[in-house]
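[SOLVED] Need 3D model of a two-part complex

Original post:
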Amino acid sequence: MKLSGTVHKYGDNVDTDVIIPARYLNTFDPTELARHCLEDLDPSFAGKVKPGDIILAGANFGCGSSREHAPLALKSSGVGCVVARSFARIFFRNAINIGLPILECPTTSSLAESGDRLEIELETGSIVNPTTGASGQAAPYTGFILELIQAGGLIARLRRDAAPAK
Amino acid sequence: MSMTMTQKILAAHTGRESVGPGEIIHAVCDLVLGNDITAPPAIAEFRKIGTARVFDRNKIALVMDHFTPAKDIKSAEQCKTVRDFAREQKIVHFYEGGGGGVEHVILPEKGLVGAGDLVIGADSHTCTYGALGAFSTGVGSTDMAAGMASGRCWFKVPEALRFELEEKLPPDVGGKDVILSVIGRIGVEGASYKSMEFGGPGLSSLTMDDRLTMANMAVEAGAKNGIFEVDDKTREYLRESGSKSRTEYRADRDAVYAETFRIDLSSLKPVVAMPSSPANVRPADEVGQVPIDQVVIGSCTNGRISDFRTAARILKGRKAAPGVRLLILPGSDLVYAQALKEGLLATFLLAGAVIGPPTCGPCLGGHMGVLAKGEKAVATTNRNFVGRMGHPESSVYLAGPAVAAASAVLGRIAAPAALSER
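Solution:
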């Protein structure tokens, strides 16, 4: 699957409290969560994000709380993919489980700046900045994780397994 | 193949002789936990799976503790969703209000977790139960839904960091100071995707409350789980809590660790994690003059009886400084009752404290102690991220109960020793 979008670039340790502050967790309505996505880090984000945009970040993206509201807020904001140097483990599994594409790439800082476009090939992990020619390589998904992604997330996979054989 | 303590528990719950780091396994869960924030989306996902009943109504715990007593209509609706689900599914362990408390305080207390168990919880601090010799880890709502339906969860088998504890803690230094010092040393990513395994000759000197505090914050170093070797103190705790699980796992003598750290407990000092990272740790007597507006003592990290005993010892006969709001939140009804019985609550009231019900409220800026712009708080909680306790321009300094109580009295961040220097 090929993705292409405008970059919103952030630093290391973007925690789930800034992705979606707890004061908005009295609901899990995706539209409502999207309205406040990244509010405490970048108050302008919700107003400027377009469908297919790409978050480019440093190490330990999504650290902190287990709130699935965080990947959900990003996904329903229209974010097409999060590329980070590394992900905190609960955010990683939450994103995979709900079908938000994420890629771990060691060279995120030199790939692009906010406002640049990035082109991503999810299957191979190839990331290209067509303007500067910069490129990066994320480890492609394999095995069970790939199976989960292809099934459309954990619940879709369970439904498929629970369905009576035809 | 040699295994760590965590790997042994994972292997046992997968019906395997052994498992190795990096492997994906599907393990059986002894307990699946959710709260009033994470359970509602989990219930919605559970409905989509198409399974009518949960896998085992005895092995699910639903604890209403984050925005409770309900802070607004939407929070009340979320609790109602969970309450109705608990009724429909005849869930045995549903807690709200009286008889309950903060999830990670009450589950060990009520004997719902024991040594050798495998627990998943839709709350990142589920790692707390590692103090009891269990494998327990935080997951999301979708994992919780899948766990409630199937009784299983997928894991990537972690490698481990070994923490060899030596000597004994000095006075006024507790489990919070140990774990903050460790996080300060290894960083917020220092244990990413790994287990933190604690043991060694110094272990026996740590109380169960110290260990629960330490395991609780393993996630702040990025760890999958924190886990403690089982000893006589663990056995006594499990006997008293009435836990049925008593399977003791020990790492193999030749288990391989990614790294081993020696922690000399006697060298540790009361510390503070400065904003806005739990790894931004400094000795409490080296932070300079930092005036504060609020002190919170409680939470799943430090809301147990020994935490309040420590705070009361320092607050006895003293008062919170003018302009400092001192909030005391016992972690459970049992902790509350015990603190009442021991006269601790009277000490707090005489010190000018407000005593609240057991709730997570202030820790995550939910309710009961939200900070205004520019305000500073010392809290015995676990996170000090931007906006964690309220306004994005407020700040949180993490500390143990001794530093928190001393800071309340002096109106600035202070080590307990500063009280006698006045």
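Edit: Helices of chain A lie at 16-19, 30-35, 45-48, 69-76, 89-98, 108-111, 143-151, 154-162.
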